# Entry
Amino acid sequence: MAIPVRRDGSARIVLLGRQGSGKGTQAAKLSMTYAIPHVSTGEAFREAIKAGTELGQRVQAYLDSGELVPDDVVLAVVRERLFGPGAPEGFILDGVPRTIGQAEALAALAEPRGIDVVVDLDVPTEEVLRRMSARRVCGNCGANFNLVDNPPRAAGVCDVCGGPLVQRDDDTEEAIRRRLELYEDATAPLIAWYRERGLLVTVDATGPPEEVNRRLVAALDGAAPR
Ligand code: AMP
# Structure
């Protein structure tokens, strides 16, 4: 891994971690620290559904049931946003790749430079279940909050844009169970896949977001995690 990760807008970071591990929250913070765009495929799909686009219609049933969107659809979004004309040099990926097939395709797309580092945000399953039931997102800008660990300043109102905070449609008990099951089957194998390629850094993601952020930045900057 290229340590320390550069802060000049060229860093390429992938965040892995179970649903509820804080990927969205931490990616938004890292995006500012490292001056790189935060790209979330889940957020891209939710926006497309809200806007009623063809992509939105295609992916809605997958999101509602917690199933994975097929790789070709995911990769078309990644290709367009990250490797199309005018695409940024650096980025932080949140929620992609989620399968070995997506990781292989991403590696090919990212040639010749490749990805700098893959961070696994490590949180036990019991903890993510607790976090997901308290999770709220802004219905307007998509910012993430948690009623227990990361509450908004005013109840029900987004700190970023003043939009209404809502529970995600796929944060139902059934969809959460299915998504965690899929994480273990399809996504967890990526941890070993990236470790074998010398790209993996594991960060303890338990505790309040600010504390996790300090550990993350310390790991990315090459200092000993605190
Ligand atoms: P997230 O916001 O990352 O939890 O993603 C929400 C939902 O979007 C997931 O439950 C999947 O249905 C879909 N999704 C997002 N990213 C991917 C991906 N890389 N591969 C397959 N499905 C995805």
